[in-house]
Design brief:
- The chain is of the alpha/beta class and 419 residues long.
- It folds into 2 domains: 8-37 and 287-414, Lyase, Ornithine Decarboxylase, Chain A, domain 1 (Beta Barrel), CATH 2.40.37.10; 106-280, TIM Barrel.
- The chain has 12 helices and 21 strands.
- The chain has helices spanning 22-29, 38-51, 69-78, 87-95, 112-121, 131-144, 182-191, 212-230, 258-269, 282-285, 318-322, 410-414, and strands spanning 8-11, 14-17, 20-21, 33-37, 57-62, 81-84, 103-105, 125-128, 148-155, 177-178, 195-201, 237-239, 275-278, 289-301, 304-309, 328-330, 338-344, 353-361, 368-371, 393-397, 400-405.
- Strands 4, 14, 15, 16, 17, 18, 19, 20 and 21 form a 9-stranded mixed β-sheet that branches.
- Helix 2 (38-51) runs parallel beside helix 9, helix 5 crosses helix 6 and helix 8 packs parallel to helix 9 (258-269).
- The longest helix has 19 residues, at 212-230.
- The radius of gyration is 23 Å and the shape is elongated.
């Protein structure tokens, strides 16, 4: 069973991105490449904006999901802010037109240089992850004559039921202040110079496919908000984090819709009189992107038939790092012969395997293979392992496309070295 994506799929014998055949793109820039749908990105953002339209809500796109300048500019034009975790991401967001007044800075290890830069731009809010970080921000803000608006990231000790490598809301995870220590942390912040307490932040994980863990976490945060106000802290923002999943394959549960998520959030926080901040990333860009590759060889090995493609684990790390399962389709999907393939890449690692025992119509060298749901945590996690050039990124809008990141040549890659 295949997942049907809104902006990608077969029309007759060809596979399309919106109204552009991906083979036409492949003939222009060669495989492998990432391909994003502008319409897909816009519609995913609009779904959140519409769902929360009746409440004061700021949607801060999680830049770590896909930091392409073209993607960020699309979202900035829609009114989005940014959730960043490094100075580099902050610079990207600002360059793309996202105002500092719509940027929150998350991350467990903000350096002194990053804090200084963020203060110089007067960002909306620091999501503070520890008391040592709080004291660092206070010292730097005081030195610069600035005031840092802060929210503590509260770890509510909620198991979101996700892969252990993307779980962030349990006490054994490195993120945030334990909820049991929150009131002491806010009391400390209120005494420090250069600090203005303004809110609460939470983020319990990624690829969350049920609203149940959110319900538990929201209740804990709502209770804390009231306690902090009783303690005299002006809680005016509540940052709900991101984390909604997408339907990577037909065997997953169906991801909650933005309307369902909004209904839960507004049921819990609608009467608290706080501005809500959202940090969606994967659910904005994940389904709006694909990875297009070509078959290099078909190889018989023991009991396996290997479909060796030109995309590799360095281009798309999720399957090898998270054991992630993505729907994979072939452009040539018809014919009487069906074959079970192990779909693998060319990198010299056994982990360079996208899926095992995957059924497709019989393929041959030059056929296009499409990995769906690759718009998030794809290009941003890529590397140049094996001195393989980073692959191009292409943006499609209806029936046109353009390259938004070129493939570097070998001279420029090797030329970065100092002999």
């Amino acid at each position: 069973m295949e997942i049907t994506l809104q902006n990608f799929g077969h029309k007759g014998e060809l596979y399309y991105a919106d109204n552009v055949p991906v083979r036409r793109i492949a003939e222009s820039c060669d495989t492998p490449f990432y391909c994003y749908s502008q319409l897909g990105i816009e519609s995913a953002y609009d779904a959140y904006a519409s769902a929360f339209a009746q409440h004061d809500t700021l949607i801060c796109y999680a830049v770590k999901a896909n930091s392409s300048q073209a993607v960020l500019r699309i979202l900035a034009a829609r009114g989005a802010g940014a959730d960043v975790v490094s100075e580099g991401e902050l610079r990207r967001a600002l360059l793309a037109g996202m105002p500092a007044s719509k940027i929150v800075f998350s991350g467990v290890a903000k350096t002194a240089g990053e804090i200084k830069f963020a203060l110089s731009k007067d960002i909306l809010q620091f999501n503070v992850e520890s008391e040592p970080e709080l004291h660092q921000i206070s010292a730097i803000a005081t030195q610069l004559g600035k005031t840092a608006r802060i929210a503590f990231r509260i770890n509510p000790d909620i198991d979101a039921g996700t892969h252990e490598k993307i779980s962030t809301g349990k006490l054994e995870n490195k993120f945030g202040i334990p909820w049991q220590s929150a009131r002491q942390a806010y009391a400390e912040a209120a005494k420090l110079p250069g600090i203005k307490v303004c809110g609460i932040d939470m983020h319990i994980g990624s690829q969350i496919m049920s609203l149940a863990p959110y319900s538990r976490a929201f209740e804990r945060i709502a209770e804390l908000a009231q306690q902090l106000r009783d303690d005299g802290h002006p809680i005016t923002t509540i940052d709900l984090g991101g984390g909604l999943g997408i339907n990577y394959d037909a065997h997953n549960d169906v991801a909650p819709a933005a309307t369902e998520y909004a209904a839960l959030a507004l049921k819990t926080f609608g009467d608290i009189n706080c501005r809500l901040i959202l940090e969606p990333g994967r659910s904005i860009v994940g389904d709006a992107g694909i990875l297009v590759s070509s078959v290099i060889y078909v190889k018989q090995g023991g009991n396996s038939t290997f479909l060796i493609i030109d995309a590799a684990m360095n281009d798309f790390l999720r399957p090898s790092m998270y054991n992630a399962h993505h729907n994979i389709v072939a452009e040539r999907n018809s014919g009487s012969e069906q074959v079970h393939y192990d779909i693998v890449g060319p990198v010299c690692e056994t982990a360079d395997t996208f899926v095992r025992n995957w059924q497709l119509a019989a393929q041959q060298a030059g056929d296009l293979i499409i990995i769906e749901g690759a718009g998030a945590y794809g290009s941003v996690m890529a590397s140049g392992y094996n001195t393989r050039p980073l692959i191009p990124e292409v943006l499609v809008e209806d029936n046109t496309f353009r390259i938004i990141r070129k493939r570097p040549d070998y001279d420029s890659i090797i030329g970065m070295d100092i002999p």
